């Protein structure tokens, strides 16, 4: 892996999840010597839920998962790194079917019990022979650590990303582990990147889906690196039921709140790790909008700021150019009134009521911008709508990485 | 001025327009020794039309023009460069009123006959004393050339931008000259940048407005540098009537078509010059979308491609990464079907029917990308909707310019 992002976070201690066995292998989808195929098997009885990209040009993997999710059950997850297999027509579909068939044969299950995700360059069919050989190698390999799996699903990622949370359900403690990859082409709309969550909780697939969808709107849907939405975004959650808790069959059940909160917290932490590994990122930026006409309006205004190249480059340059925040609010196409608008950087109010605050002192703002964590607050003064999104700055590193990605 | 954009175009020969007198002066809005105040006077009887930013946080100049435009008459244009005066509350409004009053006093007209535009940093009130002294100096200065005016309205622009077109109305030839500034914060929605058009044609303001609005949708609304829409975007057209043509009082009049075509051509050329001066630009990119469900849908898909940082950086790197075009189509939120999508780079079809063309040869595409003019064609295969937009690539130059703009 290349030099870790300055915003990287160390991997926490990651416990095994009962009923989940990760393995990795070298399929060599690119000319590299690293594990790039991840094969996670699940004991019989695991529930699954997922959120998938809303792109109109989704990968065949996304279509496969979309078709399999309603069945609610999973026996394995296969992740290919280095080739997204997107926009590859019938050959791409054939590759997905071949992977599902081979994995199912190893395990002794239905192909529809196999979930598949791929990430990498668009437009090159995934080589079926490499995928099959990789699957065979993985299946006969010893189980690996979460760290190895988190490394194996990465592409331009600069550090492995994983989170653990826990929740009490009755007298049992259930554990959730999530691994995620993503660095560029990050602007999840209804879903995002490749993220995989494993828990030993016993929970009905429909309930897990309801909780995952809710968590998604407050986490993956609230981050952006570069406003570009992938063709392959996938988040899947697998629950093995091995914790022995009273099975959650409704969000009204005792312990459901605690589990939903742990899942939501996990998703938010995973999403923020992706921003921390944003291509070229040197600053982690939180944008909090309040006083909008609705939460949805606040969300769109926050994303307008977060996706503005001029706001992102100003922060990269540690330049307290708050006028660009005004610009981004103005262009969002949402209700806003210039003369009711307030803006703060960190704890410092910079503009209020349509102009700079009286006696505005840039020194504390400049000091805030020198840090790695930047906070921008916007109050529209119109209503009760609020939203928070996270992004990173736009630096030479982003250009370097993306002007020369395939070569 | 800094090093000219590699995409710069030489200034054409620009004729005087009867009834129009440009002058420039040093108001010194920034610490620089250059003309930054432009004062263009118009003989009595000139008609005016305009299109203005749709930003919800417009500058007081934009509000002033919006209020004055319905009167349809103009005696002068004042342009300040180096300070946009946007988001400056009452002090900004006071500056605009002071400029209008001073200019009107010099000319002997109503303040509402004065049109004002300012460009530069947001959030700093325009110093009234400098503006007034600059106006006085300009009024007593000799008339200047169009080139001097085109230079004086610029900020981060790297070359002066102007276009001339002509049209026959009956037995008279009318002339149109346009000057424009703009380089970053360019993503016109309904209007754009600062652009000023002068013609000796005799035409009713309402007809001029109708033609300008129509031309705008096919020119300024079809360019983007960085997806960021300014608080100050303004295009004004002034018609002095000195050409002696039969006054155009309707778009049905003889010669109206020719004039509208010349105006439209002028606007398109001006808009493309702004893209050619896009901050950090090294490639001029045309994106033509056809086969969409509607023209509006094609326009949104074209802008999704044109604003994609990943598409723009790939072109900067001369990388034939057409998968990113697929991604940008997919994320546009418009009707699209992956398996009907075709993509070409220059004259080379790269993808068709949902995958790369059989025997795809990257060599001609790579050769096309080495040039300064890049063409991307997308056919959605759904309907008759089409649109073309123009943009530039995203390079280190953009980051350099914008991470350090105010210092």
From TrEMBL, chains A, B:
Function: Catalyzes two activities which are involved in the cyclic version of arginine biosynthesis: the synthesis of N-acetylglutamate from glutamate and acetyl-CoA as the acetyl donor, and of ornithine by transacetylation between N(2)-acetylornithine and glutamate.
UniProt organism field: Sphingomonas gilva
UniProt GO BP: L-arginine biosynthetic process; ornithine biosynthetic process
Gene Ontology annotations for the cellular component aspect, listed alphabetically: cytoplasm
Lineage of the organism: Bacteria, Pseudomonadati, Pseudomonadota, Alphaproteobacteria, Sphingomonadales
Keyword list, A-Z: Acyltransferase, Amino-acid biosynthesis, Arginine biosynthesis, Autocatalytic cleavage, Cytoplasm, Multifunctional enzyme, Transferase
Cell compartment(s), UniProt: Cytoplasm
Site label Cleavage, positions: 191-192
Entry protein name: Arginine biosynthesis bifunctional protein ArgJ
Molecular functions per Gene Ontology: L-glutamate N-acetyltransferase activity; L-glutamate N-acetyltransferase activity, acting on acetyl-L-ornithine as donor
Subunit structure of this chain's protein: Heterotetramer of two alpha and two beta chains.
Catalytic activity: L-glutamate + acetyl-CoA = N-acetyl-L-glutamate + CoA + H(+); N(2)-acetyl-L-ornithine + L-glutamate = N-acetyl-L-glutamate + L-ornithine
Protein's pathway: Amino-acid biosynthesis; L-arginine biosynthesis; L-ornithine and N-acetyl-L-glutamate from L-glutamate and N(2)-acetyl-L-ornithine (cyclic): step 1/1; Amino-acid biosynthesis; L-arginine biosynthesis; N(2)-acetyl-L-ornithine from L-glutamate: step 1/4
Annotated positions for site Involved in the stabilization of negative charge on the oxyanion by the formation of the oxyanion hole: 119-120
Residues annotated as the enzyme's active site: 192
Enzyme Commission designation: 2.3.1.35, 2.3.1.1
Protein family (similarity comment): Belongs to the ArgJ family.
Pfam families for the chain: ArgJ (PF01960)
InterPro entries (UniProt xref): Arg_biosynth_ArgJ, ArgJ-like_dom_sf, ArgJ_beta_C
CDD domains for this protein: OAT
